[in-house]
Amino acid sequence: MQNGTTSSDHVHKPTARARFRGSFAPKNRERQLPVYCQDPNAGAARKLYLYLTQGWFDPDIWKSAFVEAMGTMCLCYTSGLIGITTVNTGTKQVLAYVGVSNSVLLMLFIYATSPASGGHLNPLITFATLLTGLSEFPRAILYMLAQLLGSAISGGLIRESFGLETTVKYQGGGCYLTTSELSSGQAFVIEMMSSLTLLVLAFGVALDPRAVKNFGPLGPALVGLSLGLVTFAGSKAVANGGYPGPSVNPTRCFAFAVARGGTGFDSGCCVIVWKQRK
Fold first, then answer.
1. Contact predicate 143/135, CB 8 Å
2. Cα–Cα dist 258/223, whole Å
3. 154-201 pLDDT tens trace
4. Using CA atoms, how far apart are residues 25 and 206, in angstroms rounded to an integer?
């Protein structure tokens, strides 16, 4: 080759924008310590400064946040369509079908987005990785804002797809609570324990660095299966359908609340956004 270059010099190298320790993609895990931990002589104030400031102007993190927004938008929109379509089939096992479908849906979306963003698609997961040091502060904040934005857009798209009257009829796709049958406090406990269970399983099969050796690329599939089991476990907490079970994803319920527009309902927020009817 001319100028002493070889063909290997012109090979496009993949971007490292999703290489961080909280990624669902095992091969994209960043093994290097965060910047604030690399200097053993740095004081607490210096480490805190680096923790809070390093990464805000990294374009790769912003690109990954954009992927999180797009992925969350498509995930919430498709999940809403699944809920509405399943109700229209007339089956008496709506929650079972929705649970299974959302398990497969989440698994596919994690596989699809993890190379570019880590595949969180859920503020619950992102916040947990922030607390455990697997996601740096700027990445976690940008991810959660992006997920919220994506879910809000999907809620608007659900309403535009069906119109306000039909959207309200089908409760935006899910996530509601009839407080005359199950109190907000009781639903909060169900959501809290279901979310905790999902986190324990997600870390145990995928996010914990030690899990890579045991499960490898099966992690996202096991996380999807965990979601299905957790949501199905609480799907009949109210026998006559006043509560469709835990969501364990705040953006999903936020999307459906945006789709409903709050028309005729009082909106409350605990772990998720609920539609409350007395």
1. yes
2. 27
3. 999 999 998 888 888 888 777 888 777 788 888 889 899 999 999 999
4. 9
